[in-house]
């Protein structure tokens, strides 16, 4: 249901912005805000619900930026989440990939994810996003969910104004670059007491931690160790930590296909973190 909901929202937004673009002939990449306040009429919804009948207009090639919102259920707003308790212990799991977008590595991971039909959640650092906007657009176009991982990736204690700036500046750039609004926040290093999580909670974001780490930041470990860490620790509702940026992540790229195939062999299905939250008990 979540999946459908998100997809539907995505399509509706897409149609809304596409109609605006057609009307204005303005590239959304120059001005992604366009169409945001456009009322979504019932006819748009009806069109989306009957795509087989060919009622949805073809999108113009310039429609690269869409408006997509990753919200969290009320019970998780302003809360810290490590994992999710599933109503029927369904074997679902969510990969969270941090510190990108990053040249080469993110692209290689996107290819692996696409080949395996797996959707994940990327937590972006503002500075990295600023340097790699096209990669970011591709990540969103391929259907992955996005979270905020601050501008500088600082661990230190911050006053409220700095924490606000770290988070809001990143949100703004995520939106301007990809049209995405997200209520998912992941604190760098998992530090919950340096002012960042407090500000995120005040904005009703969910602070998304993890219950299982690949430990892929260990500079000495082999890719097989990352694979073993995940496959041995996986549980229904786990949120898995790994990285596509912030350093040389070739070993994580190497580990990813085995992580995916191993979890699939264990019977797991992959969901994004917003989807996982929607499935929570
Ligand atoms: Zn990080």
UniProtKB/TrEMBL annotation:
Q: Which Pfam families match?
A: Polysacc_deac_1
Q: Which InterPro entries match?
A: Glyco_hydro/deAcase_b/a-brl (IPR011330), NODB_dom (IPR002509), Polysacc_deacetylase_ArnD (IPR050248)
In this protein, which residues make up the domain named NodB homology? 91-271
Instruction: Give the transmembrane ranges.
Output: none
Q: What is its EC number?
A: 3.5.1.41
- State the Gene Ontology terms under molecular function: chitin deacetylase activity
Q: Which Gene3D superfamilies match?
A: Glycoside hydrolase/deacetylase (3.20.20.370)
Which biological processes are named by the entry's GO terms? carbohydrate metabolic process
Per UniProt, the keywords (alphabetical) are: Hydrolase
Protein name, per record: Polysaccharide deacetylase
- Organism, scientific name: Nostoc punctiforme (strain ATCC 29133 / PCC 73102)
């Amino acid at each position: 249901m979540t999946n459908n909901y998100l997809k539907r929202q995505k399509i509706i937004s897409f149609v809304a912005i596409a109609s605006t673009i057609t009307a204005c002939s303005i590239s959304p990449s120059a001005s992604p805000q366009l169409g945001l306040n456009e009322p979504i009429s019932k006819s748009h919804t009806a069109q989306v619900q009957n795509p087989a009948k060919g009622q949805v207009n073809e999108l113009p090639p310039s429609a690269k930026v869409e408006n997509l919102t990753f919200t969290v259920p009320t019970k998780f707003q302003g809360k810290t989440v490590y994992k999710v308790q599933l109503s029927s212990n369904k074997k679902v799991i969510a990969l969270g990939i941090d510190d990108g977008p990053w040249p080469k590595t993110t692209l290689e991971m996107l290819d692996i994810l696409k080949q395996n039909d797996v959707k994940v959640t990327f937590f972006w650092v503002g500075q990295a996003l600023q340097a790699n906007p096209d990669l970011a657009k591709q990540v969103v176009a391929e259907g992955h969910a996005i979270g905020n991982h601050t501008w500088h990736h600082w661990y230190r204690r911050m006053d409220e104004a700095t924490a606000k700036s770290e988070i809001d500046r990143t949100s703004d750039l995520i939106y301007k670059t990809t049209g995405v609004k997200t209520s998912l926040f992941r604190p760098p290093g998992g530090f919950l007491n340096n002012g960042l999580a407090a500000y995120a909670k005040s904005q009703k974001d969910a602070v998304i931690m993890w219950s299982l780490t690949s430990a892929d930041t260990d500079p000495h470990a082999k890719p097989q160790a990352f694979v073993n860490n995940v496959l041995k620790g996986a549980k229904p509702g786990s949120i898995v930590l790994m990285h596509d940026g912030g350093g040389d992540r070739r070993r994580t790229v190497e580990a990813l296909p085995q992580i995916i195939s191993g979890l699939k062999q264990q019977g797991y299905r992959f969901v994004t973190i917003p989807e996982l939250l929607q499935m929570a008990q």
